[in-house]
Amino acid sequence: MPRGGVNTTVPVAAEATPAVDPRLIVRDQGVAGYLGEFRRRLSSGELGSVPVVAALVVIWVVFGSLDGTFLSAQNLSNLSQQIVGTGMIALGVVFVLLLGEIDLSVGSVSGLCAAIFAVLNVTHGVNQWAALAAALAGGALVGLVQGLFFARVGVPAFVVTLAGNLAWNGLMLQLLGASGTVNLSGHDVVSRLYTTVYPQVIAAYGLALAGVLLFLGASVYDAERRRRAGVPFRPMSDIALRTVLLAVVAFSAAYTLNQYKGLPLALLVFLVLIVLLDFLLRRTSYGRRVFALGGNIEGARRAGIGVAGIRVSVFVIASTMAAVGGLFLAAQIQSASQTSGGGNLLMNAIAAAVIGGTSLFGGHGRTWSALLGALVIGSIQSGMNIEGLSNAIQFMITGAVLLAAVVIDSLARRTQRAAGRA
């Protein structure tokens, strides 16, 4: 007892109860827990891919009921091949949107790089692989120049890429010359990448099986790694359910493709790039830095992230993917012309990324957004072409869908802030 009779001894706190991750509680509750968690996420604005998947289902049901040919194997197979060019460009746009920026030059860059390949290979007889490398390098160089103006000089990305949209289009016209059009031979590497279809049944089913096994293996490895680290991990029941759902989608798609011609090589290349860039974004420190910049640039800077370098690299990726998309689009029409990269290509690419679930405000999105968004836009265009509707109607409906996607994103962010999750 201290002097004065006052007990100054600090009482010993009761033994602390370790915090339990709420995800573990949800998983212990089984199906009911997952349904409750799903409702909670929706009510708190964490919508994920739910809106775009729901929109895609509605579009397919509506057009399928209006004309049975829309859901035919031939139309769906053609659709999977036709969306590749725009989808590739949208894949690069996703990276820029994750920073909360915009790239208005991707349409012109796609046309410029298609022209580089066509002029070198067809007009000047340069080896097709060298011409392909030059086209891709041209896209990367454009991204580097624009990224440096944005990240180092401080010119807003909107202004830099708007100027680029004009400049690269002018350079494309200069390269094409007086004729304005250079036809591809049809036997070059770019044309073969687009037109090649593997008719063997095993090709589509093999891709589906490989995708499912890759997902399963990655999920099990991640769960085991997290278990050893003593952090929450997905139980095998969760992984099994997700694997089954993926298998249903993958093998249904493979079955549909095999009902027509088979697996298009263009679609295979698109899916491979999506998976690789998804790995880059979600499984590497580089991807975490991209998300960090999009979520809070000042916080990222104080955390020691090289902001300028990440920004430049993102624009390089966007322009390179625009080059890839432009080459596939040129192969689709078998030429590079004055209209390459023009029309509504830019708006469709940006719309595909946004409709697919990438936030215009930065920090939220996945590479799969490009595929989902391209499917939505391609489905609308395909359905309306079957119904014989004009381009004017197509533009209005696509614009309405884009506006709806942005509104949903804005409302979701507002709900997240209200729930303390943003």
Question: What's the structural blueprint in terms of helices and strands?
Answer:
Blueprint (H helix, E strand, L loop, with lengths): L21 H7 L2 H13 L6 H17 L6 H10 L1 H15 L7 H18 L4 H26 L3 H20 L4 E3 L5 H7 L1 E2 L2 H29 L6 H23 L4 E2 H19 L1 H11 L1 H6 L4 H27 L1 E3 L7 H11 L12 H20 L3 H28 L4
Antiparallel strand pairs: 1-4, 2-3
Helix pairs in contact: 1-2, 3-17, 4-17, 5-12, 5-15, 5-16, 5-17, 6-7, 6-8, 6-15, 7-8, 7-15, 9-15, 10-11, 12-13, 13-15, 16-17, 16-18, 17-18
Query: How many domain regions?
Result: 2
Q: Please state how the strands of the largest beta sheet are arranged side by side.
A: 1-4
CATH class of the largest domain: Mainly Alpha
What's the total helix number? 18
Q: What is the CATH T-level topology of the largest domain?
A: ABC transporter involved in vitamin B12 uptake, BtuC
Estimate the global geometry from the Cα principal axes: globular
Rg, Å, rounded: 25 Å
Mean pLDDT: 87
Judged by helices, strands and strand pairing, the structural class is: mainly alpha
Judging by the overall fold, what is the CATH architecture of the largest domain?
Orthogonal Bundle
Count all strands and give the number.
Answer: 4
Task: State the helicity in percent bands.
Answer: over 70%
How much of the sequence lies in strands comes to: under 5%
* Euclidean distance between termini CA atoms: 51 Å
**What sequence of helices (H) and strands (E) makes up the elements?**
HHHHHHHHEHEHHEHHHHEHHH
Largest sheet composition: 2 strands, antiparallel
Poorly predicted spans = 1-6, 10-21
